[in-house]
């Protein structure tokens, strides 16, 4: 294994899923899913895909991924909030809520 950031552990074939590839693939898939319906929404969907696992670049999350179960899930291993926070700071509110809900479900804006 290289020092690349992990998105997911090994699959059944023993292949690792690296984070840079994962984010690009999810972004492209999300964009393609909406490309015929609405060009603006497809661009937003692409950004959601690119940012949804941004928190997996944190050292704490990578240690958790590589720990083989010796580190338990905790607030230090959460990852969805980081992409959502970036979107929120950029005033991309709908995108922020979409990313924040990718594990927890969508929240009421109010």
Structure report:
By secondary structure, this protein is mainly alpha-helical. It is built from 5 helices and 2 strands; from the N terminus they run ββααααα. The chain has helices at residues 19-34, 39-51, 59-66, 80-89, 93-104; strands spanning 6-8, 17-18. Strands 1-2 form a two-stranded antiparallel sheet. Helix 1 packs antiparallel against helix 2.
Q: Largest sheet, if any?
A: 2 strands, antiparallel
- Shape descriptor reads globular
Radius of gyration: 15 Å
Strand content: under 5%
Structural class: mainly alpha
Number of helices: 5
Q: State the end-to-end distance.
A: 45 Å
* Average pLDDT reading: 87
| SSE ordering | EEHHHHH
Describe the strand arrangement of the main beta sheet, using strand numbers.
1-2
- Residue share in helix: 40-55%
* Spans of at least 5 consecutive residues with low confidence: none
Count of individual beta strands: 2
Oligomer: single chain
């Amino acid at each position: 294994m290289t020092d690349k950031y992990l998105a997911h552990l090994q699959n059944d074939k023993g292949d690792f899923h690296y984070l840079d590839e994962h984010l690009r693939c999810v972004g492209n898939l999300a964009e393609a899913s909406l490309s015929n319906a609405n060009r603006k929404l497809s661009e937003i969907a692409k950004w959601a895909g690119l940012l949804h696992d941004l928190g997996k670049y944190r050292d704490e999350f990578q240690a958790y991924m590589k720990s083989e179960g010796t580190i338990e899930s905790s607030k230090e291993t959460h990852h969805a909030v980081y992409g959502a926070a970036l979107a929120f700071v950029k005033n991309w509110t709908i995108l922020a809520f979409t990313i924040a809900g990718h594990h927890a479900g969508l929240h009421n804006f109010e």
